[in-house]
């Protein structure tokens, strides 16, 4: 199946499987994939390592704003996925820890951080044939995206998936801790002032609580056939 040169924007709640789905879409349709959350996680790691956020999640916003002017945070996108770097240091593993997860939502709520990330995401989008996942891709970063998907799933299903993923990576974590973190991130992400998580009016909702990745791929193939007609055959 062939799709025209479009941007596919995938937004939704934490741990709904956006990245896995986006990665598979990219590989099936030869698109570039970018995980925008990784950029927010990268800024968070940088803020933690440089004393811009404390244990109580209080942020030195003006100090961070100044530091962002020279921060070299960037990513590479390969068919296997995107990788995030500070300078030439790959931070892909460090940005997935529970500690970063517990600090990323307050950092992502800061307007100058969003501006910093948005500039880089929009630059990447110029390449077209891009699938990007996040919280505000279809609403703020690429409101003109040709295909927008809003993903959701039951909280318990999401927590189970996330806990399994973390245990597999060697970071044992309890279901309670993961559920509490997801609940808190959902709340902060949906209630912040700048670009809160919300469904774009023209986004299609995908509740994947009871779906496998293969079911989701079937779903998107149908959507693409319907949307782009014979162009996609
Ligand atoms: O997708 P993720 O869990 O890796 O994202 C980490 C955090 O980054 C998430 O709690 C909210 C924030 N985020 C955002 O505000 N906007 C995006 N486009 C992507 C992520």
Architecture overview:
There is one protein chain. By secondary structure, this protein is of the alpha/beta class. It has 9 helices and 8 strands. The protein has helices at 18-29, 36-49, 61-68, 98-108, 111-125, 137-141, 155-168, 175-191, 213-228, and strands spanning 7-12, 32-35, 73-78, 81-86, 89-90, 130-134, 147-152, 204-207. It has a 5-stranded parallel beta sheet, with helices on both faces. The chain is globular and about 50 Å long. The chain binds 2'-deoxycytidine-5'-monophosphate. 2'-deoxycytidine-5'-monophosphate is lined by residues 14, 36-37, 40-41, 104-105, 108, 134-137, 185, 189.
How much beta, percentage-wise?
15-25%
Q: Strand count, sense and closure of the main sheet?
A: 5 strands, parallel
Order of helices and strands: EHEHHEEEHHEHEHHEH
Count of helical stretches: 9
Q: Give the ligands present.
A: 2'-deoxycytidine-5'-monophosphate
In short:
This protein is an alpha/beta fold and 233 residues long.
Q: Topology of this structure?
A:
Elements: E1 7-12, H1 18-29, E2 32-35, H2 36-49, H3 61-68, E3 73-78, E4 81-86, E5 89-90, H4 98-108, H5 111-125, E6 130-134, H6 137-141, E7 147-152, H7 155-168, H8 175-191, E8 204-207, H9 213-228
Parallel strand pairs: 1-6, 1-7, 2-6, 7-8
Antiparallel strand pairs: 3-4, 4-5
Helix pairs in contact: 2-4, 2-5, 4-8, 7-8
The protein binds 2'-deoxycytidine-5'-monophosphate (DC).
């Amino acid at each position: 199946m062939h799709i025209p040169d479009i941007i596919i924007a995938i937004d939704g709640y934490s741990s709904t499987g956006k990245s896995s789905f986006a990665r598979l879409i990219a590989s099936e349709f030869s698109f570039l994939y970018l995980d925008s959350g990784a950029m927010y996680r990268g800024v968070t790691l940088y803020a933690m390592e440089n004393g811009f956020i404390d244990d109580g999640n209080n942020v030195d916003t003006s100090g961070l704003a100044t530091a962002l002017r020279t921060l070299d945070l960037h990513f590479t996108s390969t068919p296997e996925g995107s990788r995030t770097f500070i300078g030439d240091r790959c931070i892909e593993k460090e940005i997935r820890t529970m500690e970063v997860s517990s600090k990323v939502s307050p950092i992502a709520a800061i307007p100058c951080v969003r501006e910093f990330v948005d500039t880089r995401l929009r630059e990447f989008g110029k390449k077209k044939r891009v699938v990007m996942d996040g919280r505000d891709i279809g609403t703020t970063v690429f409101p003109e995206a040709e295909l927008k998907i809003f993903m959701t799933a039951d909280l318990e299903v999401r927590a189970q998936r996330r806990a399994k993923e973390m245990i597999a990576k060697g970071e044992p974590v309890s279901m309670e801790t993961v559920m509490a973190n997801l609940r808190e991130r959902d709340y902060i992400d949906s209630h912040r002032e700048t670009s809160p998580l919300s469904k774009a009016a023209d986004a299609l909702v995908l509740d994947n609580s009871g779906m496998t990745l293969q079911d989701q791929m079937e779903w998107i193939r149908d959507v693409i056939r319907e949307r782009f007609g014979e162009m996609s055959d």
